[in-house]
Design brief:
binds pyridoxal-5'-phosphate, Aspartate Aminotransferase, domain 1, Aspartate Aminotransferase, domain 2, single chain, four-stranded antiparallel beta sheet
């Protein structure tokens, strides 16, 4: 697998080593263990046993070791450097959380164990649920959803169940123009037609447009607050009044709860349901696509339609309600997934909450907002702010400052990689032209922020000075340069075949 952009004999770049697929490393008969030949046994499969080889690669132990270690080093991670990805909240994952999550009593429980043997784990879920309800000011929470988007689905399905229970088959869901793509996708998956609500010139939902679109056919309004422009929706009370006046539900996308945790309780703002991304606000790892966790808090109006399962205090300790027949007066619409939710993430999130305490969580949101405003203050001389005024936990620029330079937002982001930074979020939200959305989080030091700011300022000045070629050629220091991301998304090569030429995929 020769890299195209390097002239070394091996294709490696220093100690950054090219790594073939594990299947390409296969050599017949190679093995990590020596097992005795199995004794002959009588065929018990009625002649249906497999006759072909299974097709797994034959490898030695060091090969396997190096393969996965090298793959792990190809990932950029919050543990490796600053990750200013707006909307996604890439904050430090405290090691204390990891330590607690690895305690055998928590790490080794099995979801099918009888409740009497996992009382501590159930208590942990119950305690986390308690603090989630306390922090959000909401009476109920569905713990099982496995990510933010899954939580949105849970929230809208709960709202739909409540509407159906009152014989109210509404057809429309309203979503602001600045919304994350998962909001309209969720509404569409639930069978609703989606209508976009424009923003006003302050980057907030246009209240008049919202009022005009609301009628008794609207099932829900899905707001993000603070919104994806990094701005607090300061007319949220008027919005919730208008939504409830037509009998609709008020969904809040809580992905940005980290900006207000400890300071604002969504329950006080008239919200009916809101997901929390434990992997954003509460510092659990995003895990390379691994387990997220998206509990959904619910208002009184929706609580009894929450999905199974949930933990209750029974006569003999904690119990899990798994079936509708055991759900007393509640009318769960079903369940979101097998078992109870992402236990490992529950442990980490609770460890985070308990180690911070109420005052610490308040400090988290204050520092996140302070850091973002520091970026805003120092960068807005050279970059163009999408909307004037202070921001919350993330700051949104548009590509106005690149006008006439032949450098695009994409080029700018690629140049950040050469400088050793993960790029900011690009081209989202869609309401800002060529958006650059930066979220520093509270866990970056002043030194890190200064270095990042100085780098962005330097690049902005270079772009304006006419150095377009450097940007268009970036990144120059990565194992691969520009990838055909459209082809990678639309025509992914997911299956290795013995004669396929690796390196073709997405390049
Ligand atoms: C991250 C995010 C989501 C989706 O959350 P996942 O946990 O990635 O599924 C939804 N809305 C907003 C605003 C987000 O930032």
């Amino acid at each position: 697998m020769a890299a195209k952009d390097t002239d070394t004999f091996t294709g490696n770049k220093g100690l950054r080593i090219e790594e073939p697929l594990i299947f390409e490393q296969h050599a017949p008969g190679r093995s990590g263990v020596d097992l005795p030949e199995p004794p002959a046994v009588q065929d018990r499969l009625g002649g249906l046993e497999r006759r072909d080889v299974i097709g797994l690669p034959d490898l030695s132990e060091p090969q396997v070791m190096r393969h996965y270690t090298r793959l792990s080093q190809k990932n950029f991670a919050i543990d490796a450097g600053f990750y200013p990805l707006g909307s996604c909240t890439m904050k430090h994952n405290p090691r204390l959380n990891e330590k607690v999550a690895r305690l055998p009593g928590l790490a080794d429980v099995h979801p099918l164990q009888p409740a009497s043997t996992v009382q501590g784990a159930l208590r942990l879920i119950d305690t986390l649920a308690h603090w989630i309800k306390t922090l959000t000011g909401m009476p109920a929470v569905a713990m099982s959803p496995a990510a933010g988007a899954h939580g949105e689905l849970c929230g809208l399905m709960t709202a739909r169940a409540a509407l159906e229970a009152r014989g109210d088959a509404r057809k429309r869901v309203l979503v602001p123009d600045s919304a994350h793509g998962t909001n309209p996708a969720t509404a569409a998956i639930c069978g609703y037609s989606v209508e976009a609500i424009p923003l006003n010139d302050r980057g907030r939902v246009d209240l008049a447009a919202l009022r005009a679109a609301l009628d008794e056919d609207v099932a829900a309004f899905m707001l993000t607050n603070p919104n994806t422009c990094g701005l607090f929706e300061d007319e949220i009370l008027e919005q919730s009044q208008a939504v409830h006046d037509v009998g609709a539900f008020f969904y809040c996308d809580g992905a940005n709860f980290n900006a207000i945790v400890g300071r604002v309780r969504p329950g006080d703002l008239g919200i009916d349901c809101m997901h929390l991304n434990l992997h954003k606000t509460f510092s659990t790892p995003h895990g390379g696509g691994g387990p997220g966790s998206g509990p959904v808090v619910l208002s009184e109006a929706l609580a009894s339609y929450a999905p199974l399962p949930w933990v209750v205090h029974g006569d003999d300790g904690y119990e899990v309600v798994e079936h509708e027949a055991d759900a007393s007066d509640a009318e769960p619409y079903g369940r979101m997934k097998a078992y109870h939710g992402q236990m490992g993430m529950f442990v980490r999130a609770l460890a985070y909450m308990m180690s911070h305490g109420a005052d610490g969580l308040k400090q988290v949101s204050s520092d996140a907002v302070l850091n973002a405003n520091y970026l805003l203050a120092r960068l807005s001389d050279e970059l163009t702010l999408a909307y004037d005024g202070p921001c919350m936990h993330e700051v949104l620029f548009d590509d106005g400052f690149l006008k006439g330079t032949d450098v695009t937002t994409l080029d700018f982001a690629k140049a950040m990689i050469d400088e050793g930074f993960h790029p900011m979020t690009m081209y989202f939200p869609l309401v800002a032209h060529g958006a650059l959305l930066m979220e520093p989080t509270e866990t970056e030091s002043r030194d890190n922020l200064e270095q990042y700011i100085d780098t962005v300022l330097d690049l902005a000045r270079r772009a304006k000075a006419g150095d377009a070629q450097t940007f268009q050629d970036a990144p120059g220091y990565t194992p691969r340069r520009r990838l055909d991301e459209t082809a990678a998304a639309r025509c992914p090569i997911l299956r290795w075949k013995p004669d396929s030429v690796s390196g073709e995929a997405a390049e």
